[in-house]
Protein 1
Amino acid sequence: MARLRTGGYTYTLEPGVYGEHTADEFWFDRKEGFCEHIASAFVVLMRAMDVPARIVTGYQGGGQNSLDGYWTVRQSDAHAWAEVWIAERGWVRVDPTGAVAPGRVGAFERLPIPQGAIASAVGNVIGANALQQMRAVWEAVNNRWNQWVLNYSQNSQMDLLKKLGFESPSWQDLTTILGSLLGVAALGGATWTWWERRQHDPWLRLLGRTRKRLEAAGLPLPDHLPPRAMARRVQAHWGTASGAAAPNTQAQAQRIHDWLLRLEQVRYAPQPAQQLGTLRREFNTLSWPQPTPGQ
């Protein structure tokens, strides 16, 4: 360890390609490398001195996300160190990288990883701080998705029930809540679908206007009736009208009857937009029978 501290060894992520005898090359020739070079050269030396030693690889350090408080361990936090066997103590951790670059271990300092052309260009345009903030936002969203969707365990479900006021939640409570939520979601979806169709389907809007006009004329009709059934009701209601105004009323009813049949045909036409516009203009020119007294 003293030799590593004072022998001119340096820590770098770009030491170049080593040859076959990496330990000798590190100790006597290059004197530079990253944690795997340093740890492996240290272990080879220990074994040459009959000291049991082994390489350990894993991670150290990490960064805390300021948005949700979770820690992120990246591939850039990967690290290699050594363990040596000491009598009556067992395996003892030794990190030779700390002798070469103390900040790399104690303060968890990271050398900047070389960036490609695209990453460098993006960083220059929006700035390093903004890029880091965008990364933090994305990781917070991704972590929330992992916690609440992909890894949503039974314990998480029970904790949620406790927050909702259940002191000792059971599977029956969970089933009840899930069933209620599904029912509310289904009802909301059905209501939204109905409203969406009523708002954005011009054919349905025109049919609704026709139903209201017929109701104002004295013929209320259920909402479920299609145009063909409405046409039959119109003909049955006004087609046998009597009195001085009967011929005029019958003619009006016949025109409404024929118009409703054409409206139904347009619903299934291959290109209904133009025909629907014609029907909409005819709707504004239709004459509607007057309601009979008492209606």
Note: Residues 190 and 196 are 10 Å apart (CA to CA).
Protein 2
Amino acid sequence: MARQSEPLPDADHAVPVLLTRPREQGESFARKLTRRLGSRVRPVIAPLMSPEYLSPPAPEGPFAAVIFTSAHGVEGAVRLGVELPRLAYCVGRSTAAAATRAGFEARSANGNAEDLVAAVRKQAPNGRLLYIRGVDTSGDVANTLINQGFQTVSLQVYLQKPIPFLRESTDLLCQTVPVVLPLFSPRSALLFRDALPSDARADLHIVAMSEAVAQAAADIPHSALMVARNPDAPGMLDAVESLLAALPSP
């Protein structure tokens, strides 16, 4: 049920956009928001998780290609300090950009886990695949590929440690104001639900990166929930702008 919102407390009536991604990714998206929407938004950096990189033993090769579903996976691969194949299948453009900067020949699926599997199937490499991933991931990429006949080995190189909200975030959520909440993963949605103060009064307008994220966010109290047309940063920006346009004028 929608809540009635008080007028926004700042002079410009900028709508708070609560960014719960790990800090580096949150700050990057905040810059994109500001470039796109200017003073219409007030990004609030509120990370609910922080990456911790692991040092697992690298499996014996050879491998024909690596698979990445996040920039953290790319960073974790670099930190391993071992020789890896140059060809990298990446879930989306931001992950592909990180892989390119790290020296890989990146191919972006421009989508989600299903699109990534389809891209591998379409451009089938001759040899085994090494899926470099986090401990918690959405989409069963490795088993899907194995079931489709691709020899795939998973290697967990990082985990996302939950961290509590900062005071600024808690204070915001306890005000009766509209807040836009972009959620980029099912785990982000679950962590937010667990971290939401019991006395929260914010009028939440959720942007989900995918249907899976929307399902995970379904029981978060909200007035609106929109799924991005494309599961990437431009798609999320478009959805945030659409939600802003639908908000009542202050």
Note: The two ends are 20 Å apart (CA to CA).
